[in-house]
Amino acid sequence: MRLCRFGEDRLGLVEGAMVRDVTAALEILPCCHQYPLPNYDILIAHLGTVAERAGALAPHAAPLPLENIRLLSPVANPGKIVAAPVNYKKHAQEVRDNPALHNNNPALLQSINTIGLFLKATSSLVGAGEGIHLWKPDRRNDHEVELAFVIGRTGNNIPKSEALDYIAGYAIGLDITIRGTEDRSFRKSPDSYSVLGPWLVTPDEIPNPGELELSISVNGEMRQKSNTNNMILGVAELIEFASSFYTLHPGDIFMTGTPEGVSQIAAGDTIVATVEKIGSMQVVVHLAQQAAVTAQQVSE
User: Fold this and answer.
1) Distance of CA 120 to CAs 75, 117, 123, Å?
2) Is 288 helix (H, G, I), strand (E, B) or coil?
3) What is the reported pLDDT for 95?
4) What are the start and end residues of each CATH 3.90.850.10 domain in the chain?
5) Residue 197 — pLDDT band, cuts 50, 70, 90?
6) Element (H, E) at 48
7) Is the pLDDT of residue 207 over 60?
8) Which 8-state DSSP code applies to residue 40?
9) CA–CA separation, 95 vs 207, rounded Å?
10) N or C: which end of the chain has fewer CB within 10 A?
11) Helices and strands: H and E segment counts in the chain
12) Which residue has the higher pLDDT, 96 or 241?
């Protein structure tokens, strides 16, 4: 099953090039209006029952052309975005070989097993239809295509042998990066620098996340192309690693790292990211409003 979030927080069931509006399935979710709100995503926590209800509603819902809707992140309220640095051997080598990528930062020259994982701000999360908005256009901004997955239930110290049972679904992730000397989390957390989409694919459609082709093109030019079997730490290992340091909750998003071929993007670019068994998402690059204002002030 492929579930998307679109428009004004509508819930959709994706069928080929069409989407069926099954927003009424959200009516079965518990109300959470009392402060404090839960530290997890309510929809993901109840995804099984919502998906069952969505399936029952779908035959009676009018199909909408996918090309006409604005796709949001399929997860609205993640507690955290966990990211895996230099998790492909060839990308790790290209970082070490290119000063424009590592900026003499010693943390960028070490292996994932040494430096561990990092967190991105949840405020950086957007969907494919919202686009990327560059905050520092005077600096190098790079694309990074990644397999992403979403945690479906709470757990910590999860053994690798049980890890895949904790996954609610898979998606395509774009981890956008400003190059520089600051901490990795800081440079990767501006608004819109975490793109998740185009929808969430349930695990029954992806029995082996460790054998998926992934690629990205910019303005029709292929930039990155690899397979998740080249990851240093696979999906199960990442869950085991992360959950040994903190509890995972429904809606937590993992970005599993990017292969070699990262390169610069600029306002006006069109990105197409693809992951096997998930699909493709098109994302347009813009100037962030504050960057556009600054540029205008400079020109004046």
Assistant:
1) 15, 10, 9
2) coil
3) 73
4) 81-299
5) very high
6) helix 47-57
7) yes
8) S
9) 31
10) C
11) 8, 19
12) 241
More confident residue, 216 or 89: 216
φ and ψ at residue 215, rounded to 5 degrees: -160, 165
> CA-CA distance, 273 to 214, in Å (whole number)?
8
Query: Peptide bond before 65: cis, by omega within 30 degrees of 0?
Result: no
pLDDT in tens, 124-175: 999 999 999 999 999 999 999 999 999 999 999 999 999 999 999 999 999 9
Whole-angstrom distance, CA of residue 7 vs CA of residue 222: 30
Q: Which fold has domain 81-299?
A: Fumarylacetoacetate hydrolase; domain 2 (3.90.850)
Q: Span 31-54, mean pLDDT? A: 90
Tokens of 108: 């960028």
Tens of pLDDT, residue by residue over 223-257, are 999 999 999 999 999 999 999 999 999 999 999 99
Please give the DSSP secondary-structure letter assigned to residue 155.
B
234 touches 211 (CB < 8 A): no
pTM over 0.70: yes
Tokens for 201, please give them: 């694919």
- Residues 253/168, Cβ–Cβ less than 8 Å: no
Residues in the chain: 300
Asked whether the beta carbons of 181 and 145 are under 8 A apart, the reply is no
Q: What residue has token string 């459609």? A: 205
What is the DSSP track for 185-253? HHHT-STT-EEEEEEEE-GGG-S-TTS-EEEEEETTEEEEEEEGGGBSS-HHHHHHHHHTTS-B-TT-E
Question: Could you read off the pLDDT of 210-222 as tens digits, one per residue?
Answer: 999 999 999 999 9
Residue where the block lists tokens 């507690």 = 79
